[in-house]
Amino acid sequence: MIKESMAVIVAETFASMIPLILIVGYLTTGERSRRAQRVFFWLSAMNFLLLVSDIAEIILWERRMTGLQNVMSVIGYFAYWMILGLFSSYVYIVVNRYTEAKNWPFAIAWVLSVTGILSWSLSLFNHTIAYYDAAGNFMRGPYYFLGQVPGVMLIVLVASLVFRYRRELGPGESFSLFIYIFVPAIAALIRYRITTFPILYMAMTMSLLVIYVNVHMRRDREFYLQEALLAENRISIMLSQVQPHFIYNCLNAIYYLCDKDPEEAQEAISSFSDYLRGNLDSLSHSGNIPFGKEMEHVDCYLRLEKMRFGDELRVEEDIEAEDFDIPAITVQPLVENAVKHGVTTNGGGTVYIGTREEGREYIITVRDDGKGYDPGQRTAEDGEGHGHRHIGLENVRERIERMCGGSLEIRSAPGRGTEAVIHLPK
């Protein structure tokens, strides 16, 4: 019996390393903002607590410390039933990624989980479901099988929900969730009919690992899809910035400068070349670039626009902070919007570009003093060029969110101009 106890202790000690590693990984990777990750962390914590409490129970049983053994049993029952409740919450969160699931089945799951905690913990003292005798041996009470009902109902409920939403979840997600449901259930039947070895807790731990592997496989797929989407966005941004009418206007202005002022024409050609090179270079940048490099591209664009509009276009720059990175072709589309829709439609005006460091973020502001518009009424199709503005801003916003975890805020009102504000966390 002592050898069997030692075998269980060794096996469960090694098994407890798995949830412990998952816990440490969660605490050190900084992914605490996602609800699914937080629930998975508590699943791992409860799994670790379950194994540790069972090891403690065995040690206390060998020393005939029945009182403390009951305490460890209460902790173990709490961890076991919490795992079932947390798993139902995890299923609910995962399902809601793909479709809107009703929350009442998951509320029932938690009611069953709490029922299991209370009934099994109290049975240690009223001997209704299971308890330890004076020698510390596990004994089944008269309502032992009735005590299994909440767990069976909970497993059937969650399994039916996974089956109900299997198409939305996809084969990989469904498989990992079914593994966590049925492998421990089969292990529980084997333990009841064949062996007293605690393979149930081992099966729960291995199933937890399957979910973890599936999560990381899904993240890899999402990463590659995101990379493809960003590459597509970089191309669309470059193409949207090199508009045919802009090229025509620049070349036409350079054409007239060739006779009027050859030196200025030469500088204009250099600026135009730098501008096109900046757009093409954006295709090769899969990550962020220094803000100073982005401003070089903005300055090239503004020199070309100054060539066209002269004194009608005024530029103010207030760069207080520039030691940070930003996605390529991010500020330039905002400046172009300010010139096109704020200055040229108003018979001239001022474009302001400013940066500052504030708390735990960098703030970039692009502002014009043009006519402005009502964001609540103007649609993407409303007015000449506004569809292009809408698409450009959405591309900028998406890349800022995906590549920096930042945000883009647009403020505008009729007669008060437009202001675009980028918030970048440090």
Keywords:
alpha+beta, 9 strands, elongated, 426 residues, Rhopdopsin 7-helix transmembrane proteins, 5-stranded mixed beta sheet, 2 domains, Heat Shock Protein 90, 12% strand, single chain
Task: Give the structure's gist in a few sentences.
The chain has 426 residues and is α+β, with helices and mostly antiparallel strands. The chain contains 12 helices and 9 strands.
What does the model show?
- This protein is an alpha+beta fold and 426 residues long.
- The chain has two domains: 2-219, Rhodopsin 7-helix transmembrane proteins (Rhopdopsin 7-helix transmembrane proteins, Up-down Bundle); 242-425, 2-Layer Sandwich (Heat Shock Protein 90).
- The chain is 67% helix and 12% strand.
- The protein has helices at 2-29, 35-62, 66-98, 104-126, 149-164, 166-193, 199-241, 244-260, 262-281, 291-309, 331-343, 386-404, and strands at residues 130-132, 138-140, 288-290, 313-319, 325-327, 349-358, 361-368, 407-412, 418-425.
- The strands form three sheets. Strands 4-6-7-9-8 form a five-stranded mixed sheet. The chain has a two-stranded antiparallel ribbon with strand order 1-2. Strands 3-5 form a two-stranded antiparallel ribbon.
- It is elongated and about 105 Å long.
- The chain starts with a helix and ends with a strand.
- The model is unreliable at 379-389 (pLDDT under 50).
